[in-house]
Amino acid sequence: MTTAADLPPTGLWRRLAAIVYDSFLLFAVLVLATIVLLPFTGGEAVAAGNPFYLPYLLAVSYLFLGWFWTHGGQTLGMRAWRIRAQTFAGYEMTWGQALKRFGAALLAWAPSGAGFVWQWLDADGLAWHDRLSGTYLAVLPKKR
Fold first, then answer.
1. What is the spatial distance between Cα 138 and Cα 58, in angstroms, rounded to a whole number?
2. 144, part of any domain
3. How many other C-beta atoms can be found within 10 angstroms of the C-beta atom of residue 142?
4. Quick check: helix, strand or coil at residue 86?
């Protein structure tokens, strides 16, 4: 019998497909988070160069993704592609691990996505943020 700790890591293409799905939902959440700010900006767009806007959007993104990762391990895109974020022992991640994963994923995107492509070179098929957070994306078996 296969345990959660025995599930194989997700390949790059499946991972990127889930990211595409989730990016649409995250975009909608970020639009709503921006709309919430309108009463504080007098109904105007957030001023260019506002030092609080990017950290605000990053915090909203972390809370959105982190909630899914810590409550069942799956975003909507991850459900569609049978992927679950979990620890190497097969458990749900903590909020601290979710923060490490989120921050490390930002670093993985920075050098043209090199942190994601790295999983093709990694002996265990893990990306940078998998290693740095002590978590990974597992491929779930097909339901019968």
1. 25
2. no
3. 6
4. strand
